[in-house]
Every structure is written in structure tokens, then in C-alpha cells.
Specification:
Blueprint: H1 7-21, H2 27-38, H3 42-54, H4 57-68, H5 72-90, H6 96-123, H7 130-159, H8 161-180, H9 197-203, H10 212-216, H11 219-250, H12 254-282, H13 284-304, H14 308-337, H15 342-349, H16 351-370, H17 376-409
Helix pairs in contact: 1-6, 1-7, 1-8, 2-3, 2-7, 2-11, 3-6, 3-16, 4-5, 4-6, 4-15, 5-6, 5-8, 6-7, 6-15, 7-8, 7-12, 7-14, 11-12, 11-14, 11-16, 11-17, 12-13, 12-14, 13-14, 13-17, 14-15
């Protein structure tokens, strides 16, 4: 008798890998010292972060293809090592071109391979808990900066930013490679034992699997990718600028700002699990509407409550919602287009996130530079983007509800 795979062990191992590759969310702690050490502007340094994230769909689609073919273990292993090596080499960069190649290209490709392999493979082990599993697995990515930010800040003070990159990169490569040894490939049509009747019925419900070509012909794809981009915009704005915002607008020291980066990351991590579980109960569209509303409210607090209390609420609220976006959309894609081609399909949908990742940090840094470090106008831009996402989500809910009624009548 074939031994049952421990799906929770696969999930924990995947979380360990993503806790390493998720170090990109602590970049705001490293960016300032790197700018000062090399004589580069913050805008120039932030291009490395933008490239890293913007390239995401390419390795994610390639990694998704390998995952769909049953090679997620090797895709994840290669990505884990490539990320760590690229992160370490970023510390040796003496030109912007080298920084963009090491941190942007190498670490970006590594992160994409690891993220795709871990997420798309692991979620297949949880047909009964897609939202929760998606939230937990991506929580590893969101939780990385909780550990990375204070460690990076301490290392920068003692050994400098260059050696900080090198040492942390080497550690990430070793840890994530070790975790990848415990990854198991999800069997086709995997069904865990001891599911309750409701979960079994839901998991056995006929699913239409659409490959990427068929997905592109579905109008829902375009709504989902736009909603993903709009939902991620505000989170990426804060992820890449949390430390500068705290220092320039709320008078924090570099060390105190690093603490808030960790608070943001903790909120990001919790949001992935909380909103993922909520989506299993309320459905993804309703959950997404709530998150957009919270994003708008939170930015209004940052604009009008000029105090540490307001900044704290802003960091926590936006962190929770950014995590929710990253935790809810993988299961939304699977529910719409099926699990068979989830790796490639989600990689394509991830273009929405990467577009925001390229635009949000640059736009935010540019607006702040033009306004003497004041991010208020950037916050208004984020409100408009979130409001547009909310409207689109309401349209999506109406169209999907109408389609469901029509199919039931037939």
C-alpha cells in the first residue's frame, strides 16, 4: 500500500522556502544605506526592486509549466539557490547595472521559480481548504521581513550594507535549499483522507480545466488580472517605502522605521491567512470587496491622522490587505480555471501583480521626491486605484452571479 503523503509537511517546507525569498519585502531597510554607500539616488536603487518584481511572471510561467508537468521539486530547488546567490551578489555590486542584474534579474528569477513551484504544487494538496492553504503558503513570503528587517538593520550597523547582502544571501540559499529537499509533488486529482462530507462534495464537484489559451478567451480573466493589479498597488507602495514614509512623514529613526517594516510584514503575513480563511466562508469576490474598502479607509487615516497612532493603523491595515490580496487570488484563479493548469495560469495572472510592482515603487518614490519627502499625493493615487478595483470587483460579482443563475436554470 502506497504511503500517504503528509501534505502539511509539504506546506511547512514551502513556507520555509518562501520565508527566504520573501526577504525582498525588507528592501526598504536596505535601500537607504545602499543609496548612501554607493552614491546612488533612492529612485535608482528602487529600480532594482521594481525589476525584481516586474520580471515575476516570466519565471512564474516557466516554473508553473514545470510544476504542471510534475517537476515542482526541481523548479523550487533551482529557484531557491538562484535567489540566495543573486541576493548575496547584490552586495558586491559597484554599478547600478550589476545591482539590477544580481538583485533584479537573478534574485527575481529565483524568487519566481520558487514561488510558483511552492504555491501551485502545495495548493493542489488542499482541495478542501484552498483559501486557507493559499493564505498559509503565501504567509511564508509575507512573514520573511518580520525576521529580515531587524536582522538586516543590525548587520548594517555592524558590518555595512554590502556584507549584509552577502551574508543574508548565503544563509537564504542554504536554508531554502534544505527545505526544498522535503517537497513532494502533489499526485493528480489528489484527495486527502478524512474530509468531511461537505468538503468531499465540494472537492468532487465537476471542474472545467482551462489552459492558458482558453483562459485568455474568458472575459473573467481580464477582470481578475486587473483586480489583482489594483489590489496589489497599495501594498507594494508601502512594502517598498515603509521605512522612508516613517522617517520623512512621522519622524521615525532608521531603527524605529525598521520595526514598523516588521509590523507591516507581520500584518502582511496574518492577512494572508485571515483573508484566505474568510474567503473560504464568504467567497473570494466578497472578501476582495471588503479588502478594497479597508484599503481606502486606511489611506484616509494616513492622510488625516498625522500621529504615530495613525501611522500604526495605516501600516497594520494596509499590511493585512496586501497579504489578503496575495492569499486570495491564487484560489480565485483555481476556482475559475481549474487546478490542472494552475501553475501556468496563475503565472500569467501574476502579470497584474508585477505590473503594479514595477509602477508603484517608482511612482511613489517620484511623487515623494517632488514633494520633499511628502507621500500624501501618492496616497491619493492609491485611493483612486483601490476605488477602481472595488468597482471592477462589483462588476465581476454581478457577472458571475448572473452566469450562475443562467447555468442553474438550464
Amino acid at each position: 500500500m502506497k504511503k500517504e503523503i503528509n501534505r502539511w509537511a509539504v506546506l511547512v517546507s514551502s513556507m520555509g522556502i518562501l520565508m527566504c525569498t520573501g526577504a525582498v519585502y525588507a528592501f526598504s531597510v536596505l535601500a537607504g544605506p545602499l543609496s548612501a554607500a554607493r552614491g546612488w539616488t533612492m529612485a535608482e536603487v528602487m529600480v532594482a526592486f521594481a525589476i525584481n518584481a516586474a520580471l515575476g511572471p516570466i519565471p512564474m510561467i516557466l516554473g508553473g509549466f514545470l510544476t504542471d508537468k510534475g517537476w515542482s521539486k526541481w523548479s523550487t530547488m533551482a529557484g531557491a539557490v538562484l535567489f540566495g546567490v543573486g541576493f548575496a551578489l547584490a552586495g558586491t555590486a559597484t554599478t547600478l547595472t550589476e545591482l539590477y542584474i544580481y538583485y533584479g534579474l537573478m534574485a527575481g528569477f529565483g524568487q519566481g521559480f520558487a514561488y510558483s513551484g511552492c504555491l501551485s504544487n502545495t495548493i493542489r494538496f488542499f482541495p478542501d481548504k484552498k483559501g486557507l492553504a493559499s493564505g498559509l503558503i503565501t504567509a511564508g513570503m509575507g512573514g520573511a521581513a518580520i525576521i529580515a528587517a531587524p536582522i538586516a538593520n543590525q548587520l548594517i550597523q555592524s558590518i555595512g550594507v554590502a556584507d549584509t547582502f552577502v551574508r543574508m544571501g548565503i544563509a537564504y540559499a542554504i536554508i531554502s535549499f534544505t527545505c526544498s529537499l522535503f517537497i513532494k509533488v502533489a499526485p493528480k486529482d489528489y484527495m486527502p483522507k478524512n474530509m468531511n462530507a461537505a468538503a468531499t462534495a465540494a472537492a468532487n464537484k465537476p471542474v472545467v480545466n482551462k489552459n492558458w489559451k482558453e483562459m485568455l478567451q474568458d472575459p473573467k480573466f481580464y477582470m481578475i488580472i486587473l483586480m489583482f493589479a489594483m489590489g496589489a498597488f497599495s501594498g507594494l507602495m508601502i512594502a517598498s517605502n515603509a521605512s522612508p514614509i516613517g522617517q520623512s512623514m512621522f519622524g521615525l529613526s532608521a531603527a524605529a522605521a525598521a520595526v514598523y517594516v516588521s509590523v507591516y510584514s507581520l500584518s502582511n503575513t496574518m492577512g494572508r491567512v485571515i483573508w484566505g480563511a474568510v474567503s473560504d466562508k464568504l467567497g473570494q469576490p466578497t472578501t476582495i470587496s471588503i479588502m478594497y474598502s479597508v484599503i481606502i479607509l486606511t489611506f484616509l487615516i494616513l492622510i488625516f491622522v498625522k500621529s504615530m497612532f495613525g501611522f500604526t493603523l495605516g501600516i497594520i491595515g494596509l499590511g493585512l490587505c496586501f497579504g489578503g490580496v496575495m492569499g486570495v487570488f491564487p484560489s480565485l484563479v483555481m476556482d475559475n480555471f481549474g487546478p490542472k493548469f494552475q501553475g501556468v495560469n496563475y503565472g500569467i495572472v501574476f502579470i497584474g501583480y508585477s505590473t503594479s510592482a514595477f509602477v508603484a515603487p517608482k511612482v511613489t518614490a517620484g511623487i515623494a521626491a517632488a514633494n520633499n519627502g511628502d507621500f500624501t499625493k501618492a496616497f491619493y493615487v492609491a485611493i483612486v486605484v483601490a476605488a477602481a478595483g472595488l468597482i471592477l470587483d462589483l462588476v465581476y460579482k454581478k457577472k458571475t452571479a448572473t452566469k450562475s443563475i443562467t447555468e442553474t436554470a438550464q
